[in-house]
Amino acid sequence: QTISIAKAGITTVLNSRTSVLAAANPPSGRYDDLKTAQDNIDLQTTILSRFDLIFIVKDIRMYSQDKLIASHIIKIHASAGMASKDTDSMEGENWLKRYIEYCRVHCKPRLSDSAATMLQNNYVKIRQQMRQQANESGESAAIPITVRQLEAIIRLSESLAKMRLSFVATEEHVTEALRLFNVSTMDAARSGINEHMNLTPDMANEIKQAETQIKRRMGIGSH
């Protein structure tokens, strides 16, 4: 892919040769559902808008989920010795790496006309929803939906087509890319107290005042 730079009078397009995968904890250590996504993430919108997908992963205490995670970790440790023996034999036959390399070299998909129209309509719809949400809550979204996000969905659509060695990104690929975008970045943008109740600006202000008064009465470092 490419990245456009317009800084200090220099306007150019450079090849981007790497992907960035980042993980971080909220400022308070745990994700606070009573705060907005912006307060929990605590990064500038200019940085957040550069990520194609943003996932909020919460440690929800559920018996069935905890049991599955514990079982998975125990199996990993139990089969660690067997896995190390097979590593050498598998290294020379890593078909997945070879497949990904083949996709990169030989497949350069582009959007079809119908997929482009579908993407355009959905982008306008998402922008309208975010504008409506900002009007209702009185605050702008923590993760702005801009042309960068549109380019991100295009990259995802083309990547999905590339995985199937297709030279055209169809509506099916766009639908899956939009689904991924909705369950990650859009879900993160909508998260916070507005998920649980429809807050007016007055209610949000009262909550902030109450929180400030509680913090004044609590000792430093206490929870």
Describe the protein in words.
It is found in: Nucleus. It comes from Liriodendron tulipifera. This protein has 223 residues and is mainly alpha-helical. It has a domain at 32-58 and 92-192: Rossmann fold (3-Layer(aba) Sandwich). The protein has nine helices and four strands; from the N terminus they run ββαααααβααβαα. The protein has helices spanning 37-41, 45-48, 63-78, 80-91, 95-106, 113-137, 147-163, 171-190, 201-217; strands at 2-7, 10-15, 110-111, 168-169. The strands form two sheets. It has a two-stranded antiparallel ribbon with strand order 1-2. A two-stranded parallel sheet has the order 3-4. A hairpin with a 2-residue loop joins strand 1 and strand 2 (10-15). Helix 6 (113-137) runs parallel beside helix 8. The longest helix has 25 residues, at 113-137. The protein is globular. The model has no long low-confidence stretch (mean pLDDT 82).
Offer a quick outline of the entry.
The chain has 223 residues and is mostly helical. Helices cover 57% and strands 7% of the residues. The chain has a two-stranded antiparallel ribbon. Strands 3-4 form a two-stranded parallel ribbon.
